[in-house]
Design a protein that fits this description.
The chain contains two helices and 14 strands. By secondary structure, it is mainly beta. It has two domains: about 120 residues, Sandwich (Immunoglobulin-like); about 40 residues, no CATH class. Strands 6, 7, 9, 10 and 11 form a five-stranded antiparallel beta sheet that branches. A three-stranded mixed beta sheet has the order 8-3-12, with no helix packed on it.
Length: about 190
């Protein structure tokens, strides 16, 4: 819902801080910029989508997303979808906008992600990488895709390139293999 305050139009904005495991370098505390889609969902089952937005997160992991169909004071789950990471949800109970602003940081504490479904790199928490086929789990099917593309020296903006060096190789396979071994899956309400 777009609010009007003394003639000024206030579009609800979510200021999001998030990091993706394969793209984050804890030594430089920088990440590679990439596109992310964020859904705001009802906090009651079946968790219907209320609104969505797309943005690019910057090298610090920050993204600012404008929404049209949300209201202040109503709790929403924040559901983050990235091209090659496990989809993540905000903590149990949801979050609400106040004065058309919601600031949310997934990186400082694992409790900010539903089911604590993040991995710690350095001092920050990141979404797990490796779900290249977006089936909700890092598993053999993801490893097969990465392995096949690595063996053909695939280059470019590919879901299989987990560290975004524009080359699918053993570095990407290692990240996915570790997460498959640990049975990493989406944890949602």
């Amino acid at each position: 819902m777009i609010l009007v305050n003394d003639g000024e139009i206030l579009t609800p904005v979510l200021n999001l801080n998030m990091l993706v495991e394969g793209m984050y370098d804890p030594n430089s505390q920088q990440t590679v910029s990439d596109t992310v889609r964020v859904y705001l969902r009802n906090i009651n089952s079946p968790f219907q989508i209320v609104d969505s937005a797309v943005s690019v997160f910057n090298t610090s992991g920050l993204a600012s997303l404008d929404f049209q169909n949300v209201s202040d004071g109503i709790n929403y789950y924040i559901n983050v979808v990235h091209r090659n990471s496990i989809n993540a949800w905000s903590k149990s109970g949801g979050e609400s906008f106040s004065s058309s602003i919601l600031n949310y940081d997934f990186t400082n504490d694992s409790s900010m992600t539903y089911g604590y479904n993040v991995i710690k790199k350095g001092a920050k928490f990141c979404f797990y990488s490796g779900d290249v086929d977006k089936d909700g789990a890092v598993d053999l099917s993801d490893l097969s895709v990465i392995d096949n593309l690595a063996s053909s020296f695939a280059v470019g903006y590919l879901n299989s390139d987990l560290n975004y060096d524009l080359l699918t190789d053993i570095a990407d396979l290692t990240v996915a293999d570790n997460n498959a071994f640990n049975v990493v899956t989406v944890i949602s309400p």
